[in-house]
Amino acid sequence: MEYDWEHRVDTTAATVSARDRFIGLLNSPYQATDPELFKEMMAELPVRFEEFTFIDVGSGKGRTLLIAADYSFRRIVGIELLPALHRVAQQNIASYPRTGQIELICTDASFFQFPAEPLVIYLFNPLPRLSLVKMVTNLERSLLSSPRAAWIVYHNPLEQDVILQSGRFRKAAATNSYSVLVWK
Ligand SMILES: C[S@@+](CC[C@H](N)C(=O)[O-])C[C@H]1O[C@@H](n2cnc3c(N)ncnc32)[C@H](O)[C@@H]1O
């Protein structure tokens, strides 16, 4: 609420409708990332942000996209399943300064084709396990066919074994709250 008040946006879970909360239970309930924790996670990345595209898989109302706009990412992409949250993210971005490089896509992230650009992928537990397997398979296929740098910042990494399984991503940093994984 504090973030919303300060920035005049609506990114809190408190105003999500009962219907979308119910759908959220079947996929991954909406919860926005704490801004300070997001900055701590970004500080773990030893990269030149301007060379990378930031992708929030399950971007909800777009809070991380707004915060990511304060970094110098070449592009910022938010992928969200629920149209109602996607629409709120559109409104938030329209009302916020310096968000020209943000693109919002309303789709199921398990079918998303990743752009052939260096990537920082942000996951705040957006997908149930089977969908995460599909997403990671798509991502690895893309990285093998167009080799490039890729990092995953995984907040509350409950299913990180899915990402570590192929042996191509390795942990570069970790705390109780998140893991940072790099493609090798
Ligand atoms: C825990 S919230 C994270 C929101 C945002 N990334 C943040 O950190 O502030 C997870 C989001 O993933 C979305 N989601 C769930 N399943 C999805 C799917 N298959 N494809 C895209 N988004 C999905 C949910 O609707 C929810 O908005």
Q: What strand line-up does the widest sheet have?
A: 3-2-1-4-5-7-6
Q: What is the count of distinct domains?
A: 1
Task: Work out the helix count.
Answer: 7
The fraction of residues in strands falls at 15-25%
Structural class: alpha/beta
Which spans of ≥5 residues are poorly predicted at pLDDT below 50? none
Percent of residues in helical segments? 25-40%
Give the SSE string: HHHEHEHEEHEHEE
CATH superfamily: Vaccinia Virus protein VP39
The end-to-end span amounts to 39 Å
Specify the overall morphology: globular
Rg (CA only): 15 Å
> Which small-molecule ligands are present, each listed once?
S-adenosylmethionine
CATH class descriptor name: Alpha Beta
CATH architecture: 3-Layer(aba) Sandwich
Largest sheet: 7 strands, mixed
**At the third CATH level, what is the topology name?**
Rossmann fold
Mean pLDDT: 95
Can you count the beta strands?
7
